[in-house]
Design a protein that fits this description.
heterodimer; A: alpha/beta; FAD/NAD(P)-binding domain; 7 domains; 5-stranded parallel sheet; B: about 150 residues; alpha/beta; globular
Chain lengths: ~1000, ~150
């Protein structure tokens, strides 16, 4: 382990130059997030990727768990964000060849491969590919349309690339390019850049199962990897989104998934670690198969342990079993045999409880393959001078998972360890936050140069409306007829253009719309697509680029609130789409250009919770010259981590925590307020005011802050089961942990130790997995074995969930003869105490009989539960949503995992979901980084929805003065109500209450709402 | 005889109910397509006039869906909305209409299931009540309207 002193004050002593950049290597979802975070906090970033467009693995997935949403829809707004960031230099087809210097003063040599196409000129018309389909650079899975070098419609940059080796007649190729974009003499470009730090986000490859003869060695048509199955289901895949077998293009009736292919193994080609994501993706693919294609497709998953340890993932697993009837078979199949005629597949497998092998036939078999580090990454690590761990992933600090062995280089995503998208995003924000430490604190408050053309004055113009409807692949177009909507819209009054746009959010569609706005002189736009909650900003920016005020667009929610909600009802859905679209057209006619209000941002941060998470976040912000109020309910800092002795990696938690507390207490930018509770809260994002009562006297104090980080933690669970609390030798794992440290002599006397897993977790009342317990019990078992090698240890479990590299410790425990006995929820162990002797009775599935263990000690893995009282109080105070099991609910479980739905609020640590110290630290750094992106803006955008008074109608009746929840209106000298636009929150209560209708809420004026009603009921006024 | 399919307008606040409706969609939880949403920043913005106009134009039922009580993003907009809905219920009663044609429903942003369930329950209520009296007496409104 590295010295943990330096992570606590990771400030480079080197010269900090404002002009230096951060280099982000790898343009997958992690690299994009890291680059965006840095750019948003006004740091210069260079994002390089060896591929010709960014996006990485995620863009090849059909849908993502646990929401089963289309990935392109969720990731594409992020991708295009990258193109509009002023501080971001995107360099595809580029690799790092050399890095010299040290943290704060690196010099990197980058080489960009020739694309043979001028990105500036290329319009991505596709003519080149039509004529020269062999000029292929990339083959995404099974895609027979591979000639298109663009993998998906939202590709960034939006341009083709050419494989010069496959071109014989360059002149002929140049001739077909109407944009004259082909540059035959393109050469590799070498550049040298000065860097302050580097973020490594190169991800990993997926294991290629072609080396496994027992699974057909890649020769069976209907055996494929999970990723290939995703491509088959994808609308941009080989069968345009139709689920069919490769051999005969027929819909399969029986599909099987085999888990842990190449992972968690000791045979040839296997790796020992767990890839962490395959259980969830197999469940997702099985659910989507039933949801989208046919409920009667039989789906079976062959697995060893179901590892659904993430936030709410256990609920997803339960839904798969109970609601979707997905069959779960606990077995690791031996082989697959193909019937040469039917191309059906026989799987041979054995069940624990039965002696004989079974054979079953399937139409399709999906191999759940996991992550592998490719050779190219080993080379790159070598060039960077990075240490790798025994599995070839980046070795990082145990108390700072993004910090590599080389100062100034940070790792995030799968290169650090196998992980899913939300965990990758969290690490990316954490890595960005750490990388920014090597750059000067940004003081520059000058506004960004205006990147939009001046707005066209549309006053006096007659409405000229453009209607654009997305099919969103199958998401909208699969259920309703988009062409009918287009035809319908065309015949409405004032509609000048009505057109289908495929994926409206893709770069090409956006450009088409922008072009049509300009050529037809449109002054209002209706987009029929997904939710305005996610995509309104994107289309508002489109209008600004086209020279229109951004409030002249209306988004009609045809996907989230129509086709998604009315699956199986095409007629009703179509009818609703007509009405919603009509309401949108009718409403947009009444829209008016509006001006956004802004206010200066308060630069202080409030961090709630003085545990390891809160302290880490506070320190990270304080080191960036941000004033932090660290508010803790208890009398001292430290939190739950103070009661943990050792991590599974063998590090002492105590000294680390002591040092952290010391530095936090001494930091000039951190004001620690212990024994403090929140009593009131007001303000708007960027200008919050929070009242606390603090100290023994409970003095009132009001804190002004721009952002808030919630790190209030969770509680150790202590359910009333298995005799906990009735006998001195029945305790939780926390108490065992302390005993191993403080009283090893007691451990030496123990002959038998039993541990029971999932106590109070994964059962009614607390249905989710507590995530930390499997590794905790294995950690404690190994520590006991180290002190007392003869001790017999039994771990009674339901599924062992040692994800990622924790699998190493599981294997070590098995090697050291720790006995693992599985039980099921409906047949739990029984604990009896007789004559001071603790006995555990459990049905051993393999032996097929009940066994009794007379044990010297019983440790219960009780895990964590949400601090219901605290999260409830705070969610009421701050208006924040919670999950059903009382954790805070983040804004987007996939792509905004530490942001809350109320801007300016971030969450980290165990009030998000159960997690380890290491994972909590990552989240803390991520939340601090995200908070900085907001603070860097210096100004708060208040939007335009503010109440406006028409003085001539106002009778000064005082109703608005009394009804405003924020007491903003007052009667001015002229005798009528006045509302300060900078203070108005935009709820519209006053407008609704005003008897004279003298107040209108801009963007939601009465005539606009009534126009929508007219539209709904078929009247176009 | 044709089955009566009511027209239902749901005024949903941006922060809770509209988000919950999106959540229902993203979880693919079905609810009757009769329900059409009009987004407002806060249910406190929904005026009695908006509800009455919805009936006048042809709605058979109208409901206002906002944040949970005490959880309003704007402190108490949903309480104001509840009060106004009650006012409209009184007006409907005076007109001899069924009060159940208008309702206030509360939910948090995460409650996709609740959005779908309440949408179904409200639709069933209106189906039982039958077409709005306005539709019966003023069929000409429908005749003027565009047929979809």
């Amino acid at each position: 382990m590295q010295n943990h002193k330096d992570i606590l004050s990771d400030k480079s002593k080197n010269d900090k130059s404002k002009d230096k950049s951060v280099l982000v290597i790898g343009g997958g979802v992690g690299g994009i997030r890291a680059a965006l975070d840095l750019a948003e906090s006004r740091r210069n970033v260079i994002l390089i990727d060896k591929s010709y467009s960014i996006g990485g693995l995620m863009t090849q997935l059909d849908r993502t768990f646990p929401t089963n949403n289309c990935d392109l829809c969720t990731v594409s707004p992020h991708l295009s964000e990258t193109t509009r960031q002023l501080h971001l230099d995107l360099q595809p087809m580029t690799q790092l060849v050399e890095l010299t210097g040290e943290a704060g003063n690196f010099i990197a040599t980058l080489v960009t491969e020739p694309r043979y196409i001028d990105i500036e000129k290329c319009t991505a018309c596709g003519e080149c590919h039509k004529h020269f389909p062999d000029a292929v650079r990339f083959t995404p899975g099974l895609d027979p349309r591979a000639p298109t070098c663009m993998r998906y419609p939202q590709a960034t940059p939006y341009s083709f690339s050419i494989d010069m080796e496959k071109i014989t007649d360059i002149k002929a190729l140049q001739k077909v390019c109407r944009a004259d974009a082909i540059n035959a003499y393109d050469t590799p470009k070498k550049t040298r850049v000065e860097l302050a730090s580097v973020v490594l986000s190169v991800g990993a490859q997926l294991f290629d199962p072609a080396v496994l003869d027992n699974f057909g060695g890649g020769q069976f048509d209907n055996v494929m990897t999970g990723l290939e199955y995703e491509r088959i289901m994808s609308a941009s895949g080989p069968f345009q989104g139709d689920l069919v077998r490769v051999s005969d293009k027929k819909r399969p009736k029986k599909v099987a998934w085999i888990q842990c292919v190449g992972s968690r193994g000791i045979n040839k080609a296997d790796v020992p670690y767990c890839s962490g994501v395959c259980c969830m993706y197999a469940l997702k693919e099985a659910i989507v198969t039933k949801e989208r294609f046919a409920e009667n497709i039989e789906t079976t998953i062959f697995y060893m342990d179901m590892r659904t340890y993430g936030k709410d993932y256990e609920l997803y697993f339960n839904r798969a079993k109970n609601d979707y009837d997905i069959r779960m078979v606990r077995s690791r199949p031996h082989s697959i045999i193909e019937d040469s005629k039917t191309k059906n597949l026989s799987i041979t497998y054995a069940l624990e409880e039965e002696a004989l092998q079974k054979t079953e036939e399937f139409d399709m078999v999906v191999l759940s393959t996991g992550f592998r580090i490719p050779e190219t990454t080993l080379d790159l690590a070598n060039r960077l001078g990075l240490e790798l761990n025994s599995h070839h992933f980046a070795r990082t600090d145990h108390f700072n998972p993004v910090k590599t062995s080389k100062p100034g280089i940070y790792a995030c995503g799968v290169i650090e360890s196998p992980k899913d998208i939300p965990e990758t995003i969290v690490q990316a924000s954490a890595a960005a936050s750490m990388a920014a430490v090597h750059l000067p604190v940004v003081i520059d408050s000058s506004g960004a140069p205006e990147i939009f053309i001046p707005e066209r004055d549309i006053s006096g113009e007659k409405s000229r409306i453009g209607v654009f409807v997305c099919d969103c692949g199958f998401e909208i177009g699969g259920l309703i007829k988009v062409d009918k909507l287009i035809e319908f819209a065309k015949n409405r009054k004032d509609v000048v253009v009505s057109q289908a746009v495929g994926y409206g959010c893709s770069r090409d569609s956006m450009e088409i719309i922008e072009g049509l706005i300009k050529t037809h002189n449109l002054n209002r736009v209706v987009i029929g697509g997904c939710s305005p909650r996610t995509h309104e900003t994107k289309f508002q920016d489109l209008l600004r680029r086209a020279g229109l005020n951004k409030y002249l667009v209306e988004i009609v929610n045809l996907r989230d609130q129509d086709t998604w909600a009315h699956i199986g009802q095409p007629k009703e859905s179509q009818d609703k789409a007509f009405k919603l679209l009509h309401a949108g057209i009718s409403g947009v006619r009444k829209s008016r250009p509006l001006i956004d209000q802004t206010l200066p941002m308060n630069q202080n941060a409030l961090v709630l919770g003085g545990g390891v998470t809160g302290m880490t976040a506070a320190l990270q912000l304080a080191n960036q010259d941000i004033k932090v109020y660290l508010v803790e309910r208890g009398p001292v800092l430290g939190g739950l981590a103070m009661s943990i002795q050792k991590t599974i990696e063998g590090d002492d938690v105590g000294p680390f925590m002591d040092k952290l507390v010391e530095i936090v207490l001494a930091h000039k930018n951190i004001q620690v307020l212990t024994k403090s509770i929140i009593v009131d809260h007001s303000g708007i994002p960027g200008r919050f005011k929070t009242g606390i009562q603090t100290g023994i006297r409970m003095n009132y104090m009001q804190l002004s802050h721009g952002v808030t980080i919630l790190a209030t933690g969770a509680l150790p669970n202590r359910p009333d089961s298995y005799g906990l609390g009735t006998h001195v030798n029945i305790t939780t794992q926390l108490e065992l942990d302390a005993m191993i440290e403080d009283a090893p002599e007691k451990i030496k006397t123990m002959n038998h130790v039993v541990m029971i897993q999932c106590v109070g977790s994964r059962e009614p009342g607390n249905p989710n997995c507590s995530r930390i317990c499997c590794q905790t019990s294995i950690k404690n078992a190994l520590r006991i074995k180290a002190i007392n090698p003869d001790a017999q240890i039994f771990i009674l479990y339901r599924d062992i969930r040692t994800y990622g590299f924790y699998e190493d410790y599981y294997m070590e425990a098995r090697k050291k003869d720790v006995k693992f006995i599985r039980f099921s929820l409906d047949n739990k162990p029984i604990v009896r105490v007789e004559n001071d002797q603790v006995s555990v009775f459990v049905d051993d599935i393999i032996l097929g009989r009940k066994i009794q263990i007379q044990t010297d000690y019983l440790a219960l893995s009780t895990g964590m539960i949400a601090d219901d009282e605290t999260t409830e109080d705070l969610s009421m105070m701050f208006h924040l949503p919670r999950t059903a099991d009382h954790y805070f609910l983040e804004d987007h479980v996939k792509l905004r995992p530490v942001d809350m739905s109320v801007r300016g609020f971030f969450i980290a640590g165990t009030n998000h979901s159960p997690r380890t110290i290491r994972e909590s630290i990552t989240q803390a750094l991520a939340a601090a980084g995200r908070a900085q992106t907001l603070l860097a803006k210096k100004e708060i955008e208040l939007g335009a929805a503010i109440a406006k008074v028409d003085g001539s109608k106002c009778a000064a009746c005082l109703i608005c003065v009394r009804s405003c929840p924020f007491s903003i209106p007052f009667i001015n000298e002229d005798g009528y109500s006045q509302i300060d636009p900078a203070k108005c929150h935009g709820c519209g209560v006053c407008a609704a209450d005003c008897p004279a209708k003298a107040i209108q809420l801009l963007a939601y004026e009465d005539d606009q709402i009534l126009a929508k009603l007219d539209g709904l009921f078929g009247e176009l006024n | 005889m044709k089955i009566f399919e009511p027209e239902i307008v749901a005024f949903c606040c941006h922060y809770c109910a509209y988000t919950a409706a999106d959540m229902a969609g993203s979880k693919r939880i079905s609810y009757p397509a009769n329900v059409k949403i009009i987004r407002v920043p806060c249910t406190g913005k929904v005026d009695a006039i908006h509800i009455m106009k919805a009936f006048e134009k042809g709605a058979d039922g109208v409901y206002v869906a906002g944040c949970l009580q005490g959880d309003c993003h704007f402190k108490n907009g949903n309480t104001r909305a509840k009060y106004r809905v009650e006012q409209v219920q009184i007006i409907l009663g005076d007109l001899g209409w069924e009060k159940q044609r208008v309702a206030m429903i509360n939910m948090s942003a995460g409650m996709g299931e609740r959005f779908a369930r309440t949408a179904l329950e409200f639709t069933q209520t209106i189906k039982q009540l039958g077409p709005s009296p306005i539709k019966i007496t003023h069929t000409d409104i429908n005749q003027q309207a565009i047929r979809f």
